[in-house]
Design goal:
alpha+beta; 39% helix; 9 helices; eight-stranded mixed β-sheet; 258 residues; 2 domains; Aminopeptidase; 8 strands
Length: 258
């Protein structure tokens, strides 16, 4: 079982695709009994996928839960995807590119799909992420230093243990995404996306999403860009569809006898 509130937007068991439900059920109850023996009286289990087998076993417990909205963008090929966007969204993308051209700025999509990104680019991504954390959550300077140096997310980004998509403007990082490829779903699952407010005038988040989908459609088997938690306006405008995960609180760690 794996997942964290801080790093990813799914938390579930790792199990073979063809696992027998009864075997997974035994594992689930073993965990519950272990927690109970060690004094736990309740358990919080966030971001359980809607289709997870685990949700069946949670019916045997006294639980409360809340639904969490997430957004994913499905596509088959880039041409059809772009045509599916609203007239205003297509115009916004053209406007962003025209602004860059007018201001004599060059933009480029970088990724570590084939070759590693430079240490300089990675550090700029981390700096943008930390600045976003500070502004969004008003973290203290000490916590910012911890995020920048030790946080699992930034450490995995620094080591390139995942897929990183970066939009640069004049060789400076304007926006980036960091996540993992789910080969079963043919999806790129992105718990971390951040933009530099310095380049907000050029809509770097929308350009990043658009150019990434074009690259995925042309060069990979990825057919879903999963932007995970949140239904921000830009996600919906870029073709996003809402799906759900669930945050559970198991109030009594005592299930039925197996």
């Amino acid at each position: 079982m794996a997942g964290t509130d801080e790093f990813f937007d799914y938390t579930d068991w790792f199990y073979p695709k063809k696992i027998e439900k009864e075997k997974l059920k035994v594992a689930f109850y073993t965990l519950m009994n272990y927690l109970k023996r060690h004094g736990a009286v309740y358990m919080k289990w966030n971001y359980v996928p809607e289709e997870s087998l685990s949700r069946e076993f949670l019916k045997d417990f006294t639980t409360t839960f809340e639904q969490v909205d997430n957004t994913e963008i499905p596509f088959s090929n880039y041409s059809d995807y772009f045509l599916s966007l609203s007239k205003s969204t297509k115009q916004n993308l053209r406007t962003a590119e025209n602004r860059l051209k007018r201001d004599n700025k060059k933009y480029e999509l970088l990724s570590n799909l084939e070759t590693n990104l430079s240490a300089d680019i990675l550090q700029k991504c981390i700096d943008i992420y930390c600045k976003r954390q500070r502004e969004k959550y008003r973290k203290s300077i000490f916590n910012q230093a911890m995020i920048k140096t030790f946080n699992y997310s930034t450490e995995m980004l620094r080591k390139q243990k995942g897929l990183i998509m970066v939009l640069t403007i004049n060789d400076d990082v304007a926006s980036f995404m960091f996540g993992y490829i789910n080969s079963r779903r043919k999806s790129y699952e992105v718990p971390k996306l951040a933009i530099s407010e310095k380049y907000a005038f050029y809509s770097p988040g929308m350009l990043l999403v658009n150019k990434s989908i074009q690259l995925f459609a042309d060069k990979t088997d990825i057919r879903i860009l999963d932007l995970c938690r949140g239904t921000e306006q830009y996600k919906i405008k870029m073709g996003g569809e809402i799906y759900h995960t669930y945050n559970y609180k198991i109030d009594q760690l005592a299930g039925k006898t197996i």
